[in-house]
Amino acid sequence: MAISQDSFLYMEAEQPLCLACARLDDLEFLPSGDAALTRRAAKYSKRVAVVVRFSRSRERYERQGILTEGTALEKAEQECTEDADERAAARARGAARRRQQDRALVARMIKQIGVLFPGCPPREVAAIAEHTAARGSGRVGRTQGGQNLEEQSLTAAVVAAIRHNHTEYDELLSNGVNRTSARQRVADRVEEILAGWRR
Predict the structure, then answer these.
(1) DSSP state of 137
(2) Could you tell me which residues come within 8 angstroms of residue 177 by beta carbon, excluding any fewer than 6 positions away?
(3) pLDDT by residue (tens digit) across 25-66?
(4) Which residue of 15, 22, 145, 182 is 20 to 30 Å from 136, comparing CA positions?
(5) In 3D, which of 132, 158, 136 has the Cα closest to residue 146?
(6) 186 has which bridge partners?
(7) Strand partners, 62
(8) Helices vs strands, H then E, count in the chain
(9) Which one-letter DSSP state was computed for residue 69?
(10) Edge-to-edge order in the sheet of strand 28-31
(11) 70-82 and 84-116 helices cross at what angle (nearest 10)?
(12) N-to-C CA span, the chain
């Protein structure tokens, strides 16, 4: 959704001011989306204002872009055009490095889960490690404890896998049972499988 600069207000001492009153009406709006361009435009501009919009669904302010001087924006755009290929290559190298780190983490997790749960089928161990280590997932494998292969974190990942793959937990949730009750209902089965995998 496009934002009209006419709708911008500047908050000063909890009082809204139009951009002209705040002496920001000569600045240009740069929408979010290009981090390098935003960083450079902000660096070259003597005056910068962050533009936010309140999201009712998320109940928070979210950054929409910045207001920056036109000359600073032009200089930033020129620099970004000049080194676009170099930045693309750096992004590709970074992505390759992250994939390699992710593969190494999964391999280490497979080994450690196998040590902690020798009765767990190898295919299941690999599936648990790959699932819990997925980058950006917010799962336990991406926490500090997971990456350090702490027993508590890896056990939590194994318990979650058992709960989802070997019990009626997901079915209970889809039938409207709340999480806590569903976990209590499947707890004995989870413990039974966990005990078997520890041997």
Answers:
(1) S
(2) 185
(3) 899 999 999 999 999 999 999 999 999 888 889 888 888 999
(4) 182
(5) 132
(6) none
(7) 53
(8) 8, 5
(9) -
(10) 28-31, 60-68, 49-55
(11) 70
(12) 57
- Amino acid at residue number 182: A
Under 8 Å CB-to-CB from 118, ≥6 apart: which residues? Answer: 197, 198, 199
CA 171/CA 167 separation, integer angstroms: 9
pTM assigned to the model: 0.67
| φ, ψ for residue 45, nearest 5 deg | -90, 135
Give bridge partners of residue 60 from the DSSP assignment.
55
Q: What length is written for the chain?
A: 199
The whole-angstrom separation of Cα 73 and Cα 93 is: 28
The residues, any chain, with a CB within 8 Å of residue 198's CB and separated by 6 or more, are 116, 117, 118, 119
Residue pair 41/50 in contact by the 8 Å Cβ criterion: no
In tens, the pLDDT along 140-190 reads: 989 999 999 999 999 999 999 999 999 999 999 999 999 999 999 999 999
